[in-house]
Specification:
The chain is an alpha/beta fold. It is built from 13 helices and 14 strands. A five-stranded parallel β-sheet has the order 3-2-1-4-5, with helices on both faces. A five-stranded antiparallel β-sheet has the order 10-9-8-13-14. The chain is elongated and about 85 Å long.
């Protein structure tokens, strides 16, 4: 605690109730200078109130940092992950996981800039985020001190936190006065909801959980046609118009929302050892994943494609567990990026009532040969008689096993 002789702390600060309580707790417990960092990752909230609340809580103007990281987030974190088609446990698009290393990186940079000797996050002691933040902190600054209030303070529950807030004149939104129905994390890639009403995996999530998507049943009874252009594995255009990474994802989110795309109700295995139930909404990411796999289907060699699919679970697990800055993730990224050199072209998609349907794909780098696959005259491109020897060679070990098992060897 305070005996660690911490002089200045950089706090990852959202401006919400929990991090405002943490801010005041840091001031009263450590008696040191606090610097706040608020990241705009496309969470869809006005960030000016975060500055105002920090000022109200006594933070000096020069110690308040707010940065728009949307382009960096999508360009340097989301898109590299999507080149791998990363899915944790086959379903989760890692929307929360991929945001943590960027926030941690900026905290460490600010700490160096202002001469802080410690950083602080608001993750609980039961979740994955504490691991993600702290692994990133240590990777980027091995000597940094870390304050994790949820593992240190003596508050026994939500009501004690609220009492602390009231005693310190920290504003409490009306919907926070009682037990919140669920907790929410959001950024440009996704929103996630968990806890409270969602803690029973047998119960259907109430409709109020969903904030970023229409119900597929309520989506328009009319398909939406779009085209996504790719270069080196990244989306670069939408309906023929070149756009920045963040602009593309923003527009895909709008299209996904309107068509009821991207909902996921998942029970996952946390890195800390427990199972948890979360409801995720990733409208634009769901569209992007389908499009990327479609363009890869005609531009990636079979061996490269299958190798990518083999390493993908390991790559996704590294991100989920917080090892973005680990050498093994960077090694896998180099392999993945090499595979994307010729992943370019355009994919046509139909969006309809929760579905992303691939309507067509084309590329100047396509490996698809209509001459080879045609049922008509291929003009000598492929001699079907060659298949007999191919099959007999591949069957050799199976025939040998069969003869042994029948006692004929």
């Amino acid at each position: 605690m305070a005996n660690r002789d911490i002089k200045k702390i950089v706090l990852a600060y959202s401006g919400g109730l929990d991090t405002s309580i943490i801010l005041k707790w840091l001031q009263t417990t450590y008696g040191c200078e606090v610097v706040t960092f608020t990241a705009d990752l496309g969470q869809g909230e006005e960030l000016a109130p975060a500055r105002e609340k920090a000022l109200m809580l006594g933070i000096k103007p020069q110690n308040i940092f707010i940065e728009d990281l949307r382009e960096e987030f999508v360009r340097d974190y989301v898109f590299p992950m999507f080149r791998a088609n990363a899915l944790y446990e086959g379903q989760y698009l890692l929307g929360t996981s991929i945001a943590r290393p960027l926030i941690a990186k900026k905290q460490i940079e600010i700490a160096a800039k202002v001469g802080a000797d410690a950083v602080c996050h608001g993750a609980t002691g039961k979740g994955n985020d504490q691991v993600r933040f702290e692994l990133a902190y240590y990777a980027l600054n091995p000597s940094i001190k870390i304050v994790a209030p949820w593992r240190e303070w003596s508050f026994k529950g939500r009501e004690e936190l609220l009492e602390f807030a009231r005693a310190n004149q920290i504003p409490i939104a009306k919907d926070k006065e009682g037990e919140a129905p669920f907790s929410v994390d959001a950024n440009l890639l996704h929103s996630s909801s968990e806890g409270k009403v969602l803690e029973d995996p047998a119960q259907t999530p109430p409709s109020i959980v969903y904030m970023r998507t229409l119900s597929p049943m309520d989506a328009p009874d009319k398909p939406t046609e779009i085209r996504i252009g790719f270069a080196k594995g990244d989306a670069v255009s939408l309906d023929g118009k070149a756009m920045s990474p963040a602009a593309i994802l923003t527009r895909l989110n709008e299209l996904g929302r309107a068509n009821g795309i991207g909902r996921l109700d998942l029970v996952e295995n946390r890195f800390v050892g427990m199972k948890s139930r979360g409801v995720y909404e990733t409208p634009g990411g769901t569209i992007l994943l389908a499009a990327h796999r479609a363009i890869e289907s005609i531009t990636l060699d079979r061996g490269a494609a299958h190798l990518k699919d083999e390493i993908m679970p390991r790559y996704a697990e590294l991100i989920y567990n917080g090892f973005w800055f680990a050498p093994e993730r960077e090694m896998l990224q180099a392999l993945i990026d090499k595979s994307q050199e010729h992943v370019e072209g355009e994919v046509r998609l139909t969006l309809y009532k929760g579905n992303v349907i691939v309507a067509g794909r084309e590329s100047a780098k396509s490996l698809y040969s209509s001459t080879l696959v045609t049922f008509e005259d291929d003009k000598g491109a492929y001699d079907q008689k060659d298949a007999e020897g191919f099959i007999r060679l591949n069957a050799l070990r199976l025939r040998t096993l069969g003869m042994r098992d029948k006692g004929k060897t």
